[in-house]
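User: I've been going back and forth on whether these two constructs are worth ordering. Before I decide, could you fold them both?

Assistant: Sure. I'll take them in the order you sent them. The first construct and its structure tokens:
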Amino acid sequence: MDHILTRNYVQVTGHGSQPMIFAPGFGCDQNVWNLVAKAFEDDYRIISFDYVGAGHSDVNAYDPIKYSTLEGYAQDVLDVCEALQIKEAVFVGHSVGSMIGMLASIQQSHYFSHLIMIGPSPCYLNDPPLYTGGFEEKDLLGLVEMMEKNYIGWANVFASTVMSNPDRPELAKDLETRFCSTDPIIARQFAKATFFSDHRAELTKVRIPSLILQCSEDIIASPAVGQYVHQHIPNSTFTLMQATGHCPHMSHPTETIQCIRDYLNR
């Protein structure tokens, strides 16, 4: 058990009995949840973790084969659940973190009571005429190539694009710093696993109640993508937020907290 908790730098706080797991998005560590998670500490047992290769995780545990797909990251979530003997957890995931949680819930649904997906996308590639993921293959190949040639430059550009709150440049700088703290080789491999995956077929396999939170202006995962996820996951709820950008838990934590509370209270 200890090696799993060390591997993913698992932190447990809060005063409640029901677990609430917070999963970061691509290139981020668990600290991106600080503002949101704190609001639930009185009522839940808060569980935070880092993906292998990010934050304070054990980088020596990184396996390029295992982590070449999102299933490898989902297995880590299941390992953490087993190590902590978790039952009926509320899983809150951002972006690819929500897809990782979805895959974990499909494999072992008894660990989870609800799935809260913030800015999810099951497939980033356009697949006309039935699906618009938002990106052409050449765009994503260019993104990975830029990561390889000029990682710092990529981090600067991508952070601004993802955050998309130009009137608050400190938010993009914060995200850029998180990107830069991750090993570039591991980040690039995670990017490939994230942006070239297609988990549309798994959406219908979700068996727990789910909330899809989508920002009103999000270049990474548009409201149309969120609606697609909602339409294909049984027993799901869709909420379009007033927040803009792709990281409402960082840019609009109050609204994010309220949306989660409203859903769980219902």
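The second construct, handled the same way:
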Amino acid sequence: MTWAGTLLHIHVAPSASVEMEELAEARLIPGRGIEGDRYLLGTGTYSQKPDIREVTLIEMEVLEALAQGEPKIPGLKAVVDPADHRRNLTTRGVPLGHLVGRRFRVGETVLRGGRMNFPCPYLEELLGVPGLYEGLLNRSGLNCAIEAGGVIRRGDPILPLAD
């Protein structure tokens, strides 16, 4: 893989349905999650589901495409702020679909891509944007495990690692 991306935003929420809080930096704890986030605390909507969800990522390019009306869903031109998409990390220049099962570095940490995330109908309801669920199909982010913890900061590079 020959790409290099950037970490644009870091968000956490202490429990399900609570507004996301943006952080300048965050501590990632291997096997657990992001310090202060609902999935580390076991208070997330999907905390009891048998799936790796220590950190979730989404591409800024997806949010920009939605704002421009892509994909072409009748009536959908949605502005989704990085604080509103319910994922922890917003990236730029990172091909998340190519990272399933692969390791990559975010700042001083190492993550392993799990499965691609499914959009949540709740998000469409929460933001009051009809069609958002369909607009996020197949591009709603990546669930990841934390292999090597540490601190991440806005602006950190995101780089692929050899497996």
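Notes on the second construct follow. The longest strand covers residues 5-12. The chain has four helices and eleven strands.
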